[in-house]
Design a protein that fits this description.
The protein is α+β, with helices and mostly antiparallel strands and 330 residues long. It has 2 domains: 9-194, Fructose-1,6-Bisphosphatase, subunit A, domain 1 (Fructose-1,6-Bisphosphatase, Chain A, domain 1, 2-Layer Sandwich); 205-326, D-Maltodextrin-Binding Protein, domain 2 (3-Layer(aba) Sandwich). It has helices at residues 9-16, 24-43, 49-52, 68-80, 146-149, 218-229, 243-253, 272-285, 316-326, and strands at residues 86-91, 98-99, 109-117, 128-136, 158-164, 168-173, 179-184, 189-194, 205-207, 236-237, 255-259, 288-291, 311-315. It has an 8-stranded mixed β-sheet, with helices on both faces. The protein has a 5-stranded mixed β-sheet with strand order 10-9-11-13-12, with helices on both faces. A hairpin with a 6-residue loop joins β1 (86-91) and β2 (98-99). The protein is globular. The model is unreliable at 57-61 (pLDDT under 50). Bound molecules: 2,5-anhydro-1,6-di-O-phosphono-D-glucitol and manganese (II) ion (MN) (2 copies).
C-alpha cells in the first residue's frame, strides 16, 4: 500500500533545493509563496473592493485606493527587496528596472514578475495569476544593472506561477521538474498536490483568441485550421484570457496556447521577460515546448525589459507543428 504524505512547500523547497543554492533561492521562493497567500486573500475580496474602499478612487482616509495589480506588485516588492537575496527586479507594473534601496543589502539574484496576469478578468470573477522568473546576476558585485535583467530564458534558475482560481496554487521549477502546491486556506499552507507534472498525451485543448483570427496572416490561420481539424486526437477550444489559467489547464490536460503576431500587434501581446520565458521554462521542464513560431522562447535575449513576443506553448508536437507550417522547408 502506498503511504500517503502531507508535504508543505517549505519542506519540499528545503529537501529539493539545488546544490548551488545555499538557501538564498529557497528563501526567495518561500517569500513568493507568502506573497501568493497575501495576494490570494485580496483577490478573494475583489468583488467587495468597491464597497470596502480599495478601488481606483479615494477612500475615507483620503488615501488613493489601488487596483489589485498595483497591490500585488507592492506586496511582492515589500516582501523581497529587504531580504538581501536580490539585486534588482523587473515588474510589468514598473517602467524601469527596480533597484534595491541603498538601505538594504544586495544579493545575487534577479526577480522578474507579472504581479497579476489576466487583470481584465478580475471584475468578472475569473481565474487570474502571478508569473515569476529568477536569474543569477552576471557580475560578482551584484550591481543589478540592466544587462543582468536582459538574460535569455535559457539562463533562468527558477520560474513559476501562482493561480488564483477555484483554489490557489503555486507551481514552480528550479530545473528539476515542475511541482504544484495547493493552498489550504484554513491552514494557510501550500501542500504538495501535483508532483512532477508533465504535459499528458494525447492533449485535449487549443487556446487562441479567435476574435483576432480574421486579421491573422494566412500561415497562422493554416496552423489554427490544422489544430481545429486534428483527428488523432481531436482538440477542444478553450480560452480564458488569463495566460496563467490557459497555460495551467493545458499543462494538466495537454494542449497548446497561442498568441501570435497580428497586423494590429506586430510583436504579439505577451511580454518575453516575465510572461513568455518563465512559462516556456516550465513547459520544457514538463516535457513540452515554447516557441515564437520559429525558435525556442528560451533562446531569445530580450533587447528591453517590456519586449513583446509571439507565443506558441504547450505539448511539444503541437508547438513544433507551428514552425513546420509557418516556415515550410522548400
Ligand atoms: P496582463 O493582465 O498581465 O496584462 O496580461 C494579459 C495577457 C495574458 O494574460 C492573456 O493571455 C492575454 O493578455 C489576453 O489577451 P486578449 O484579451 O487580447 O485575448
Ligand atoms: Mn500578464
Ligand atoms: Mn499583469
Amino acid at each position: 500500500m502506498r503511504e500517503s504524505k502531507i508535504i508543505t512547500i517549505e519542506r519540499f523547497l528545503l529537501d529539493t533545493q539545488p546544490d548551488y543554492a545555499r538557501g538564498e533561492l529557497t528563501s526567495i521562493l518561500y517569500d513568493l509563496a507568502l506573497a501568493a497567500k497575501i495576494i490570494s486573500a485580496q483577490t478573494r475580496r475583489a468583488g467587495l473592493l468597491d464597497i470596502l474602499g480599495f478601488a481606483d478612487n479615494v477612500n475615507v482616509q483620503g488615501e488613493t485606493q489601488r487596483k489589485l495589480d498595483v497591490y500585488a506588485d507592492d506586496v511582492i516588492i515589500k516582501l523581497t527587496q529587504h531580504t538581501g537575496r536580490l539585486c534588482a527586479m523587473v515588474s510589468e507594473e514598473r517602467e524601469e528596472v527596480i533597484s534595491i534601496p541603498e538601505c538594504f543589502t544586495k544579493g545575487s539574484y534577479i526577480l522578474v514578475f507579472d504581479p497579476l496576469d489576466g487583470s481584465s478578468n478580475i471584475d468578472t470573477n475569473i481565474s487570474i495569476g502571478t508569473i515569476f522568473g529568477i536569474y543569477k546576476t552576471l557580475d560578482e558585485e551584484n550591481s543589478g544593472c540592466l544587462a543582468d535583467c536582459l538574460q535569455p530564458g535559457r539562463d533562468l534558475v527558477a520560474a513559476g506561477y501562482m493561480l488564483y482560481g477555484t483554489s490557489t496554487m503555486m507551481v514552480y521549477s528550479t530545473g528539476k521538474g515542475v511541482h504544484g502546491f495547493t493552498l489550504d486556506p484554513s491552514w494557510g499552507e501550500f501542500i504538495l498536490s501535483h508532483e512532477n507534472i508533465c504535459f499528458p498525451n494525447p492533449p485535449a485543448y487549443f487556446s487562441f483568441n479567435h476574435a483576432i483570427t480574421h486579421r491573422l496572416p494566412t500561415p497562422i490561420l493554416a496552423y489554427i485550421d490544422w489544430l481545429r481539424n486534428l483527428t488523432e486526437p481531436t482538440l477542444t477550444h478553450r480560452y480564458v484570457g488569463s495566460m496563467v489559467a490557459d497555460f495551467h489547464r493545458n499543462l494538466i490536460h495537454g494542449g497548446v496556447f497561442g498568441y501570435p503576431a497580428a497586423p494590429t500587434k506586430p510583436d504579439g501581446k505577451i511580454r518575453l521577460l516575465y510572461e513568455a520565458a518563465p512559462l516556456a521554462f516550465l513547459a520544457e521542464q514538463a516535457g513540452g515546448f515554447g516557441s515564437d513560431g520559429s525558435q525556442s522562447l528560451l533562446e531569445i535575449k530580450p533587447s528591453y525589459i517590456h519586449q513583446r513576443v509571439p507565443v506558441f506553448i504547450g505539448n511539444r508536437f503541437l508547438v513544433e507543428k507551428a514552425k513546420e507550417i509557418l516556415f515550410p522547408k522548400i
